Amino acid sequence: MTTFVDLLPILIPLFVIEIAARIYAIVDIHKPERATNLLGKTAWTIIVAVISFGWVVYLLGGRGYVSSED
Description:
There is one protein chain. With about 70 residues, the protein is mainly alpha-helical. The protein is about 65% helix and about 10% strand. The protein has helices spanning about 5-30, 40-50, 55-60; strands at about 35, 65. A two-stranded antiparallel ribbon has the order 1-2. It starts with a helix and ends in a 5-residue tail after the last strand. About 10% of the residues are buried. The model has no long low-confidence stretch (mean pLDDT about 85).
């Protein structure tokens, strides 16, 4: 039976990747040229920060661009 200590070499990189992806998504949400689909920027920020894999939902469905047609 594997113990928690035996799993740490696998879990630590996954944890680091998860945190990095959340930070990237939050920075991406607040870019001036970025619009969001379905919800506002504040709601997406809360979803990404609180919900596990919320950043995946944002990156797949919540991203949009502000149209710069003059």
